[in-house]
Amino acid sequence: MSDEIYKLPKKLGIEKRVKFLGYVPEKDLPALYAGAKALVFPSIFEGFGLPILEAQACGCPVLTSNVSSMPEVGGKGAVYVNPYDIDDIVKGMGSCQLSAVSCQLIKAGFENIKRFSWEKCAAQTLEVLERI
Fold first, then answer.
1. What is residue 65's predicted lDDT score, i.e. its pLDDT?
2. Distance CA 125, CA 119 (A)
3. DSSP E strand stretches across the chain
4. Quick one: pLDDT at residue 121?
5. Cβ atoms of 79 and 106 closer than 8 Å
6. How far is it, in rounded angstroms, from Cα 94 to Cα 79?
């Protein structure tokens, strides 16, 4: 299915406005997130959804799926859409462009990321392992 995705910008006449970056080194991600209008992440399944937190930490509004782990990870700092409904995704993208919504998402995203840290993750993992 990826072949269709790569051909779509040309088909729509927007190929000069769309770039497929492929792998991006971790050191370059903050600048990309910070310069983005939004992270559009309508994933159908994620084990965790780390890009949501990365974007929120960089002050980037987030649009993601209302399924899997995304609502748990994104908290109140994301617009949630049905990943199977293109109209819902488009509507969500439009709302992310509204200044008031974007500002609210950024603020809520900064609050949301306080719930997570690698230290907390390690401590909770150790706690589970100690119970085994």
1. 97
2. 10
3. 39-41, 62-65, 79-81
4. 87
5. no
6. 11
Among 53, 71, 58, which Cα is nearest to 114's? 53
**pLDDT averaged over 10-residue windows placed end to end, the chain, 132 residues:** 89 93 95 96 92 98 96 97 97 96 98 94 92 92
The pLDDT, as a whole number, for residue 2 is: 84
Top CATH class of 34-131 equals alpha beta
Pair of tokens at residue 101:
């919504």
Q: Per DSSP, which regions of 35-86 are E strands?
A: 39-41, 62-65, 79-81
pLDDT computed for residue 62 by the predictor: 98
Radius of gyration of the chain from Cα atoms?
16
Question: What pLDDT shows up at residue 1?
Answer: 66
